[in-house]
Amino acid sequence: MLAEERVLHLLRKTGALLDGHFKLTSGRHSNRYIQCAQLLQYPQYAAELGAALGGRFAGEDVQAVVGPAMGGILVSYEVARHLGVRSLFTERDGGGMTLRRGFALDEGERVLVVEDVITTGGSVEEVLAVVREHGAVPVGVGALADRSGGKVCWMVRLEALIKLNVSSYPAEECPLCQEGMPVVKPGSRS
Ligand SMILES: [Zn+2]
User: Global pTM?
Assistant: First the structure.
């Protein structure tokens, strides 16, 4: 099994995981920032992590992998490559999550749902609903990283390559601000 240390090393090496003091789009401040696209831009690392995650479900007779756009697309693709099955993705269509582009799932098809990072689990929840609407059977949820703090609970098995603790605070209560650490807005060049 791929060690958490290796996953952490790759996240840090590629800049997908940053430690510091960040201002999030929500306005909250955080001590860590995760952007898996930074890691997934390297196909060899994407393949390595996809194989590790797919391997966790090797005995589940998975027939298709589905992830939510955008974050889940590359993860789905690499996990599906390892398992030798189809890779699909869901998209938002006027709000709700759906399968578009002629993607279909068969009645009873065994489906693995994947995501890059699980935070609230909202997107995964919606993909699970799409899978069930098509009469297919979710056999598990796989993620590169789980930063939900154990708050998500589905009726299927959850596997994440790494569990990450991320603290966030309302700006006015941020201890990092109180320490006088400069705040960085991730994604902006400064
Ligand atoms: Zn702060």
Answer: 0.93
